[in-house]
Design brief:
mainly beta, Methylamine Dehydrogenase, Chain H, 4-stranded antiparallel sheet, 15 strands, 50% strand, WD40/YVTN_repeat-like_dom_sf, WD40_rpt, Tex1/THOC3, WD repeat
């Protein structure tokens, strides 16, 4: 039996265009990401919602729509080894940790600005979130409390840890990558 992705691949080969996966968003989709086990796909939107899809043997189906943010969901990231947990960054000056099993928010953490990027550390213990004012906030993923904040004097565009969890990378508006220990 062909998988959903085999069918998509055949579609691309014959039609040479994109295939639309409708998440029932009513506005621009800003972010998309796969769970660590590859079974769930989430999309975050300007419409303040997140849609989660389940990849089954022969198809992909929408599982749930998550509501709670009061501004756009600009980025999301799945937990590195718990396939049911993901975190969202929003313009409403919060991040939310969600549990896909329970279809609800586990925690809401207030931040100082409109959040535009987010990543989970490889060990799952820390969430980093960057805002429009180039402030990166590090949140303890278990206690849901802010550990530290780092204000940068340059435009921070994207953030990520290395796999060893000992270096933190920031891309900037000057065409460089900055590395923190």
């Amino acid at each position: 039996m062909a998988s959903y992705f085999d069918e998509i691949q055949k579609y691309f080969q014959h039609h040479n265009r994109t295939k639309e996966l409708n998440g029932n968003h009513t506005a621009k989709v800003h972010s998309v990401g796969w769970s660590c086990d590859g079974r769930l796909l989430a999309s975050g939107s300007f419409d303040k919602t997140v849609s989660v899809f389940l990849l089954e043997r022969d198809r992909m189906s929408r599982e749930a729509t998550y509501r709670g943010h009061t501004d756009s969901v600009d980025q999301l990231c799945w937990h590195p080894f718990h396939p049911e947990l993901f975190v969202t960054a929003s313009g409403d000056k919060t991040i939310r940790i969600w549990d896909a099993r329970a279809n609800k928010t586990v925690a809401t953490v207030n931040t100082k600005g409109e959040n535009i990027n987010i990543c989970w550390s490889p060990d799952g213990q820390t969430i980093a979130v960057g805002n429009k004012e180039d402030l990166v906030t590090f949140v303890d993923a278990r206690s849901h409390r802010v550990k530290t904040e780092e204000q940068f004097k340059f435009e921070v565009n994207e953030i990520s840890w290395n796999n060893e969890n000992d270096l933190f990378f920031l891309t900037n508006g000057h065409g460089c990558i900055n590395v923190l220990r």
